[in-house]
Amino acid sequence: MSRVEIGMANINQAGGGQRAPLSVLIAAKNEAANIRRCLDAVTGWADEVVVADSHSVDGTPGICNEYGATVLQFDYRGGWPKKRQWVLDNYQFRNEWILLLDADEIVTPALRDEIALAIDNPSVAGYYVSLAVVFLGKQLRFGDTKLYKLSLFRRSRGGFECRVRDQDQSMCDMEVHEHVVVKGCTARLRSPVRHENLKRLDEYIHKHNAYSNWEALVFLKGDTSELVPSLFGNQAQRRRWLKMRFQRLPGFPGAVFVYTYLFRLGFLDGRPGLIYCMFKAIQRFHVRAKIYETRLTLCSDNPQMTSHIGACK
User: Fold this and answer.
1) Angstrom distance (rounded) from CA 255 to CA 227
2) Which residue of 108, 156, 192, 205 is most buried, as measured by CB atoms within 10 A?
């Protein structure tokens, strides 16, 4: 039987007791608005579905139980590991291959087909999956929205990087800007996962406030990850290198908007594209403001401080 035939058998025989031999790990917290669509796409296809929840109060665990998913409750008190790495460290998965999803991500039929083939390749340890971002009801095609995450990997070969250990509860319990690092060869899948959050913008803003707390801390404390910023590395490394070099420059948030909205043609996505690009620029402004605030606080305690976090004056 060829690889194509084996991969298709992983899908076509799902209803007959043989499912795709991988475990799906979904991170969630108060995701009742989104998680049904996420579970619809993987239930009956993946051999195992595990949901890492953070004591949701909107009925999320009950919805997951309806689908037969295993629900694990996570208590984040700061520090590291965060949610998904904690599950990887403490839960005994049934399968070697792990597919990471957020509750607002949907695996398309084309991606399921491609994954079924990909996990049959013994020479690859992990795969990057792109995001098809849907924002305010529109799929964005411009504005630098083509992002890749290493979301599919062999459990024995990969895990999340630790970029900074000194984190508190305000910095979100899920690894959003921490990436999976694998030992071995990696490749890219062609088909994207659909990323569509049905929550209101006030929740989007609240969550990104936590992200900017975390980014400011990493900038001040220093990045300890093995995924070193590099202009010639993968996408995550290039983005880190650019942020490290330009975050300090005056007007950086405005430059982010000009780059994404004009040079990367974000304006072609209409009003959703405008709002999305504005939010990206505002996020950079929030990070800068929090860096400045933290330095002022530290310097008020020690006016002579000129450590690695920057001089007081």
Assistant:
1) 26
2) 192
Residue in 227, 236, 99, 87 with CA at minimum distance from that of residue 154: 99
Please measure the distance between the N-terminal and C-terminal CA atoms of the chain and give it in whole angstroms. 69
- Distance, in Å, from the CA atom of 54 to the CA atom of 73, rounded to the nearest integer, reads 6
Distance CA 49, CA 235 (A): 28
One domain for residues 182 and 39: yes
Question: Which one of 198, 232, 258 terminates a domain?
Answer: 198
231: in domain: yes
Q: 191 to each of 95, 113, 203, how far by Cα in Å?
A: 22, 9, 28
Bridge partners (DSSP) of residue 139 are: 134
| Whether residue 141 sits in one domain with residue 108 | yes
Rounded to 5°, the CA angle 197-274-133 comes to 30
The CA-based angle 93-76-204, given to 5 degrees, is 100
